[in-house]
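testing teh design pipeline on a random one, pls ignore if ur not involved
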């Protein structure tokens, strides 16, 4: 139990830190205001309706950049611009799968990013069943020659999303492993947690020197159906048609906007999301909501007056297909004076914990944030903050302090990378809780004189 004096000490700490502000950035007042926010929903609604799917390197992603520049200007941000780079681009083709024998029927499938092609005529071959990725790893080299590997690695939902780390590798590295063992193609049970008949796409990667094989994900009901055929002890033959193409180097880009601070000598705070999405849905939870939450929070700060530190918005391009935007940002902006990095890229459900990677000199800031987030039912986590994909490069280059506002991921992988990632899945109340948490944190860190310089890495 906390004593009355520790509770009172917390109240004093909050009021002290805000007493000297030249603006109206009282964190708790901003938190209350942000719980009424409509800007975030407006951004998700607008981006999913007026642009829709926006796969990296395509004209749809270019339209999203134009949309983002117009929106961020309309919201009143400064220095709004698009920063272009080139990246290798893969696009989807035809995609069908059908059991030829013993029980002929079509299966719901989608190609994984970087999949090879079967050609228009498709590929008909015997299927070899691996209940887990470890079973595929254990298969003798050459044992899959001319065959289709089927990995049915079952993922369960977790609040912290950790099951993606445990079961995602069937998608991330399964195809490369199958290709090295001589497989003609691979199909996996989607890395997802729903039971809708929607396959989950996502990138896979082949090592240099390994020729990409056709690689697809079955919807979870279809993967279970196929597994039941094996349980009957029959040989299974499948016809697979996947005709994606590599269309070479295409233009992608980051969109950047700023809320300039009054003291440029204090390092800026970069807040990131990614603007690109997979092509199957309209990218509402992944990651229009992240752009919406971070921009709406920065807008709350703007409306209350100028902060001391600059807040920079990074709407990164091409995250899904290899974090090209984050890498381009890291290369272009290493010379800029950054203090802190944050990212929102885990949907739109409520934030349930906060984590830090701070130097000792900022310990009191972490305590202040921890207390200020308590009314939103956000507790302090036990992990060290690591930041999102799009800020990894700038964090590594500039050795930045990090705050993670962790969202509840229980239903995230029901929708992730599927046709079901659409606006109707956004809960406006939970979205507002996100904006309130981000507004609270930004009000504190953007007005703090604390030294966020991280100790030099060993
Ligand atoms: Zn994402
Ligand atoms: Zn994604």
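output:
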């Amino acid at each position: 139990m906390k004593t009355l004096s520790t509770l009172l000490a917390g109240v004093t700490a909050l009021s002290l830190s805000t007493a000297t502000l030249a603006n109206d950035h009282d964190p708790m007042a901003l938190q209350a205001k942000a719980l009424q926010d409509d800007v975030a929903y407006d951004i998700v609604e607008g981006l999913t309706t007026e642009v829709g799917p926006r796969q990296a390197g395509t004209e749809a992603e270019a339209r999203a950049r134009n949309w983002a520049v117009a929106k961020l200007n309309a919201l009143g941000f400064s220095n709004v611009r698009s920063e272009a780079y080139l990246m290798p681009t893969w696009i989807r083709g035809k995609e069908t799968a059908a059991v030829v024998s013993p029980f002929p029927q079509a299966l719901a499938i989608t190609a994984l990013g970087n999949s090879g092609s079967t050609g228009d005529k498709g590929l008909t071959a015997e299927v070899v069943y691996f209940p887990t990725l470890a079973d595929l790893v254990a298969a003798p080299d050459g044992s899959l020659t001319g065959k289709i590997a089927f990995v049915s690695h079952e993922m369960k939902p977790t609040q912290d999303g950790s099951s993606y780390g445990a079961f995602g590798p069937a998608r991330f590295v399964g195809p490369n492993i199958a290709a090295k063992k001589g497989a003609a193609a691979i199909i996996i049970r989607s890395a997802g947690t729903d039971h809708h008949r929607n396959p989950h796409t996502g990138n896979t990667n082949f090592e240099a020197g390994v020729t990409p094989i056709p690689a697809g994900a079955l919807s979870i009901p279809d993967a279970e159906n196929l597994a039941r055929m094996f349980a009957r002890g029959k040989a299974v033959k499948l016809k697979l048609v996947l005709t994606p193409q590599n269309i070479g180097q295409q233009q992608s880009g980051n969109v950047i906007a700023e809320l300039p601070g009054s003291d440029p000598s204090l390092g800026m705070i970069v807040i990131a999301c990614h603007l690109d999405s997979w092509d199957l849905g309209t990218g509402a939870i992944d990651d229009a909501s992240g752009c919406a939450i971070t921009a709406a929070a920065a807008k709350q700060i703007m409306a209350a007056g100028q902060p001391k530190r600059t807040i920079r918005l990074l709407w990164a391009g091409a995250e899904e297909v290899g974090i090209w935007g984050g890498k381009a940002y890291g290369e272009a902006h290493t010379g800029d004076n950054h203090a802190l990095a944050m990212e929102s890229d885990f949907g739109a459900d409520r934030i349930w914990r906060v984590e830090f990677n701070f130097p000792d000199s900022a310990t009191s800031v972490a305590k202040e944030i921890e207390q200020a987030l308590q009314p939103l039912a956000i507790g302090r986590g036990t992990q060290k903050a690591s930041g999102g994909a799009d800020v990894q490069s700038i964090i590594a280059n500039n050795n930045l302090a990090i705050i993670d506002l962790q969202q509840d991921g229980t239903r995230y992988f029901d929708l992730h990378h599927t046709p079901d990632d659409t606006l109707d899945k956004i809960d406006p109340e939970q979205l507002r809780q996100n904006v309130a948490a981000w507004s609270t944190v930004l009000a504190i860190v953007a007005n703090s004189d604390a030294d966020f310089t991280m100790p030099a890495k060993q």
